[in-house]
Each structure stands twice: as C-alpha cells, then as structure tokens.
Specification:
Double Stranded RNA Binding Domain; 3 domains; 11 helices; siRNA binding; kinase
Amino acid sequence: MNQNFVSQNNQTPLGILNNLCSVSKVPMPTFEFEQIQNKDNDLYFTCKCYINEQFQSVAKGKKKKTAKHLAALRILRMLKENSSNSELAAKLDFIMKNMEIFAEDQISSFDETNNSISNNSSIINENDLENSENVQIDSFKFEAIKNYLAKCTNPIGEIKMIADKYSMKQPVFIIEDLSENSNKFSCVAKFGEFSESAIGRTKKLAKRYASIKLLFKIKTSGMLDHCPSKTKSCHKIEINQKFYDQLKFSEKKAISIIKSKNLKTQQFSSRILLEQLAREENFEYQINEIVSNIEDLKACLIYVNASPQLVFGGHGKTQDDAIKNAIFFLLIHLKDICSKDAPKSEIF
C-alpha cells in the first residue's frame, strides 16, 4: 500500500484507513454491525471490518461509532505488522501511538459484563500477543493457542493451576493506579521467568488482560512440554495413557465405528460421528475458522480438550470442506491410537 497518505484532518482510525485505501487504489473497507444484549441487559455493538477479503477484524463498543473505529484500528495494526514497506509501517506506528483511542482498544478487548464462552465475548487483540523469542512453533499450533485463549474465561485461574501442577511459585500481580482522574490502571503479571503488562480502566480488567498475554507466552514457550521433576513427568505420562486406554477399551458406539470402519471410504457424517464420540467419551472439542495462507482455500482448526490436547487443521474450497478434512484427520489419529501404541501428539 502507498505510504503517502497521512492527513492531519483524518486523525481517526477510520479516517486514516479510508485515506490509505484511497491513495492505494484498493476497495474501501466494508463494515457489518450487530447489536447484542448481555445477561445484564446492557446493549453493545460488534463490528466486522473487511478489506478486499484479505484483512478482517472484529471489535465491540457501547456505541456503533466506537466499535467501527476500533475495528478499523485493528486493520491498521494488521497492515503495520504485515507491511513490507518499512516507511509505511513506521508512519502507522507513529500515528497509532498518538491516538487517544489507542488505549480504549485495550479496554474494549475485554468486557467485565460479557465474559462467558457462549457469546464469544472474550476478544483477544492478536497483535498484542507476541510469540516467545526463544521458541518457534508452527502456524497451526500458533492459531490453536490464540483461539483457545479467545475462549478462556479464567486466565488467572489457569496460570495458578499450572503453578500447582508443576510445583512452581504462584503468579505475582503488581497493580498501579496511573491517574486519579482518568480511571486507568496498569498491571504487571509475573510467573517464573515470564513477565507481561497491560492497562485497563479497572484493576480487574488490567489484571485479566495481563494474564491473557502472560498465559499466551507460557503456552508458546514450550515450558509445559517439559516437567520440572521426575515425579511430575511420570504423572503426566500416566494421565496421557489413561485417555488412550479409555479409547482403546471403550465399546461404545462411536469409537467402535471408528475402530472397525474404513474412514477413507465409509459414507457417513464425520461431524455427527465426532459429536456422538464426544458425548459418549465425555470430552469437549472446539472448531475455529482461521485465515488460510493458501490462496482460494478456507482453513480451520479443531482441538480436543483432553490430556494430551489434540490439535488438527484442515483446508478446503469451502469452510465446510475445511471442517470435514480437519475432523477426518482427527478421526484417523484416534483410530491409530486405538490400533497400536499411542503415537506422540502435540501437547500445549
């Protein structure tokens, strides 16, 4: 995109984005709105922003205008992070740092009154979550962790559970009141060698946002793949084998079909089979759409909340095809687990 777009009269996210699209001769952004009422009968808006089907973002706000600006701001962040033009990236970085609405974006990412899993209200700003510099992980696992955290309603509790499991010191949270008049708080969250900070309009929001970022860094660090003691390592293997044994020795209908049928040729609904398997074997799974890095193909991730947590991806010409392929790979993996010794799986 063209970097010669800065206009002093358009110092809002939407104004800058429109200006950038205009001088770059690409389609103007399109927006979709939805009004939602939460359990406390509070109304807010969600806004989806698209540019040329290549970039998309979602944001929310108490006003439609606020949600629109926040969605536009997230698109600008994506452009900044993905731009091969260093001058353009530098200008976007300078402009966004000087926007008053920049801080509001962090605040709106988590709404205290809307944190249930069912309405997908825990919105994570992907560009605020940086992968650990010391570890390289593949794109599917990276997306799976982000999508998992998007559903996480208790990041503080999860970090404390990790501390208990691996006999580590509990996390420490340092909260500071930044201003007596503006109701802004900062929180520094520390756990072991990791540290993250965030800002929120309440202490609870600041602590929650810092915890999400900290939990992301923990999960991408590889720390959870290595138990700190021999006792813990043995316990971890025992838990994993218990899940495998459950599938191996189960005689319930869904797993029996998976064991006995040729999944490559059998005509059945893999999605219905997976739903039945989850009910019978008492585990949960989630399917999330992700942006495909292959042109003209859709992509998705499916992860099973078991021990170990299983993650599989799929591509297809349509989103349904992508989901079917991801489920197929998962079912093939479960069939292999039941046939011989359990193969190694991705755990995070």
